[in-house]
Amino acid sequence: MDTSETISRTAAKGSSEDFLPLKNWDHIEFYVGNAKQSAFYYQYAMGFKLTGYSGLETGNRERASFLLEQGKIRFVLSTPYHPDNFMSDHIKQHGDGVRDIALEVDSAESAFIETVKRGAEPVMKPTRIEDDNGYIIRSAIKTYGDTIHSFIERNNYKGLFLPGFVDASAKAIKGIKDAGLRSIDHMVGNVELGKMNHWVKFYAETMGFSQLLSFDDKDISTEYTALMSKVMQSGTGKIKFPINEPAAGKKKSQIDEYLEFYHGPGVQHIAMNTTNIVETVSELKSRGIEFLRVPTTYYEELESRVGKIDEPMEELAKHGILVDRDDDGYLLQLFSKPIEDRPTVFFEIIQRKGAKSFGKGNFKALFEAIEREQAVRGTL
Ligand code: FE2
Prior knowledge:
This protein has helices at residues 35-44, 86-94, 108-117, 196-206, 254-262, 277-286, 297-300, 302-306, 313-319, 363-376; strands at 22-31, 49-54, 63-70, 73-80, 97-105, 122-131, 134-142, 148-153, 166-167, 181-190, 210-215, 226-233, 240-247, 266-274, 322-326, 329-335, 346-353. By secondary structure, the chain is of the alpha+beta class. The protein has 2 domains: 17-171, 2,3-Dihydroxybiphenyl 1,2-Dioxygenase, domain 1; 181-377, 2,3-Dihydroxybiphenyl 1,2-Dioxygenase, domain 1 (Roll).
């Protein structure tokens, strides 16, 4: 095992100095070109359940929003009804992408005050929004690119999701099987060359996060492409944000390609936990989700690299599932191909068996797999 991937256990403990205690991921909002159709993809292909809706029929004249849930994961897909607004500009610029990584807090006012005081750019002042089921307080700040963090205080709300959303379960596709996705593990941002440390500083100083891990271009490089990454973790340890920037390589890195097609920094991938990756991946594959593939030689040396694991090697090889080990245990992971036409956002499926790291041992095989895809796209 490579021991250079060390985890600083002391730095990340929540303490009285945690000025931004984050309870959990609240939801992820995507701005998309056609939320109604995307909702079908997330149901049929990804195993989400349609649970909530806001739109013309509910008195929302600006946008249609569909709430999809699986395990503790909540995705909101939103499409504007008209062209002259920020949402439409966002979609024109970035294609479908993540606009809001919303986080649950006990006080959206305190979260706003504490972060803005430390330099965060405000997007929405603490605002009380109510309906018959109570009220929420919502505030928001900017992070990289056009991405924001909303702070959601929902202690006084008994409704389905947020005020304005109605139960849409009657419209859900019947008989859709859950794919075993349980919660969000981490969300990765891609930022421009030379900007990683700026955003590491933002998460450290403005949001009170600590640095969990760091990878440089010696860890993450192939013959052609390189990147650098630092993993930031909230004081409560619940929220993890790796931040990537491109590093100089012989050819255009996957981060450069993302930045070119997303037209700026943004969310690169969303990692979601499962308790049975073999089942989850075979389920998703059977519904048409495409995953990156490492060469079969990867499995020849796997056991000598990670030791004995519970899962049968043939099953892992059959699905192309990757394995890595750290001091705390091991993890299994697999990455989807981009989920839209632009080579931008993708998903990671991850099963942790003790391991707290991010699969550094797989970076090389993985990036070579990505390069083969990039070559097909004419990027390399
Ligand atoms: Fe990841």
